[in-house]
Known about the structure:
With about 300 residues, the protein is α+β, with helices and mostly antiparallel strands. About 15% of the residues lie in helices and about 20% in strands. A four-stranded antiparallel sheet has the order 10-11-1-14, with no helix packed on it.
Amino acid sequence: MSTAFECNSSDVQQKFYIADDGSFNIRSKADDKCLDIEAWSTSDGATIVLDIYVPPRFSVHFFPFESDIVITHRPENQQWTFDTTSQWAPILSKMDGKCVDISNWGASDGSLVWQWTYNAQDNQLWHYDATNNFFISKWSGLCLRVGMEPVPTCQDAPLNTYTYCNPYLPVGQRVDDLISRMTLEEKMGQMVNSAPPISHLGIPAYDWWTECLHGILTSCGTNCPTSFPEGPALGTRMGTTPHPHLTPLCRAAAARPDSTNTHAALAPRRRANHPAAQNINKSRQNRAASPCLAH
């Protein structure tokens, strides 16, 4: 969801860059995702989000004496035009010609930003601050922000008066205090894979999906971590007798939480490195599914 907030240089969700690779993308400095009109909607009021860049797809058409490369898919819901030479300019969609608009002339933090028919109003005009990577609204002076609403921290009031925000108290006491402030619905929401934020308690949204079978780092690009075989594959090489090379492998896996397929790195899930326990391959005993548990 897109909103407008007071410009804050420490808020990475307000920082964007205009791609110069011919893609017409406006990308987040936080994660390189693209400004995107959700579900290819051409309606006024359509939601503007961040989504993974989708490159154009090409096909080659062969004719008797020549061949043509034809673009068969162009993700125009991620393509925008913006005149950086103007003091104030609209952010226009190449898909439908509509623009990024502050809804209902909002002028306060959290004002909704959506797609709307362009009519050259001040709530549709923006200035790009290339130094801070901000899009600043002419209407309100607020900055474009895409992502979840900012969540307060234990340094902010009133959280700084709560027991669970006091790092000098016992962990159990702090946990009890935090849980006592959560509603039943909020507790249930934290038991799913993609846990929603609890803004009034300073709890950000969190995706718990990390398990050693897949590795903590998998989208590694050119900086790939060590990749180990997953548990059942190791077990099939063991049978019932420990393999002489398995013990050092298990030790290495446990020492490298940034590795992929470190299936034996058992730890409770927590808000840092929190690999999940391994799956059980019932066809080959626990040793086959969890060879490192025997070491």
